[in-house]
Amino acid sequence: MPFAPPRFLLDVHLGALARRLRLVGVDTAYSNDLDDDTLVAMANEQRRALLTQDRRLLHRRALEAGAFVHGQDPDEQLRDVLDRFAPPLAPWSRCTACNGRLAPVAKEAVDHLLEPGTRATYDVFARCRACGRVYWPGAHHTRLAEIVRTAQTVVAAAE
């Protein structure tokens, strides 16, 4: 991998993988509206490896670093990328929506943004420094924690 630590740019077809990589703290750029020329230029300028399932895109001479993502299921794809690149993980540190950094935030600071049920049920929150999205360990936390545990196991085995 020419860039250390590994940073990625994902093409339009890998949005679910992008969210999973961000969940485990891997710096992952993604937009669902970039053409191939823009993807190549952005990957090179930002020193990111372009991840795709489009082999033609990977054959472009101008692309400095790229890799084919194996698997159709996002969980399989995550295992593939983590096994091959073993990036350092920092779970729960990135916004799954925009890749910004998350910071702990007092409940009082986000109280006005919460639904009544969330306000009454949860006390621990984080907020994206880039887009302002608020996170808490909600109903889907068990599933997300399992993704994180699996990722940590895969990376530990790959190192």
Return the structural class. Answer: alpha/beta
- What is the 3D form? globular
What characterizes the major β-sheet?
A: 4 strands, parallel
Radius of gyration, in Å, reads 17 Å
Distance between the termini: 14 Å
The total count of helices amounts to: 7
Low-confidence stretches: none
Total number of domains: 2
Note the beta-strand portion.
5-15%
| Sheet with the most strands: spatial strand order | 2-1-3-4
Structure, described:
There is one protein chain. This protein is of the alpha/beta class and 159 residues long. The protein folds into two domains: 98 residues; 38 residues, no CATH class. The chain contains seven helices and seven strands; from the N terminus they run E-H-E-H-E-H-E-H-E-H-H-E-E-H. The strands form two sheets. A four-stranded parallel beta sheet has the order 2-1-3-4, with helices on both faces. It has a three-stranded antiparallel beta sheet with strand order 5-6-7. Helix 1 packs across helix 4 and helix 4 packs parallel to helix 7. It is globular and about 55 Å long.
